[in-house]
Amino acid sequence: MKKYLRLFLPLILGSLIGLLTSSDIDYNSLVKPPLSVPSIAFPIIWSILYLFIGITYYYFRKKSDNEDIIKLYYVQLFVNLIWPILFFTFKLRFISILWILLLDVLVALLIKKLEKNRNSFYLLIPYLLWTLFATYLNIGIYILN
Known about the structure:
- The chain is mainly alpha-helical.
- The protein has one domain (2-12, 39-144).
- The chain is built from five helices and no strands.
- The model has no long low-confidence stretch (mean pLDDT 96).
């Protein structure tokens, strides 16, 4: 059972944060930068990415108990889950830029550390690309609003 919790933990926690912040989400009322996506895309994309993140960790733990990677995984997951609270609930747009830049670095470090575990490595590439895009959106929204 513990194995499957590892697999679905990001999706469960991400969904919980989504529910907790849903009444605070003001994305549709914000002036957005070019290339912005419709709000309906976010829960779909994040659900897929959270599954990828969980599968990544599942594959990694099948082959390794590297404590440094385990800590990095949970730190990046925590940073990921706090961002919507900063951005939507508390409307701390500038702080959320700094926070998401931290997430970008942590995800990139995690990818680098998982370089030898090909399954995990490739599953995290879309996550990094999306967080970089979210960083662009966060900065654009901060500037335009």
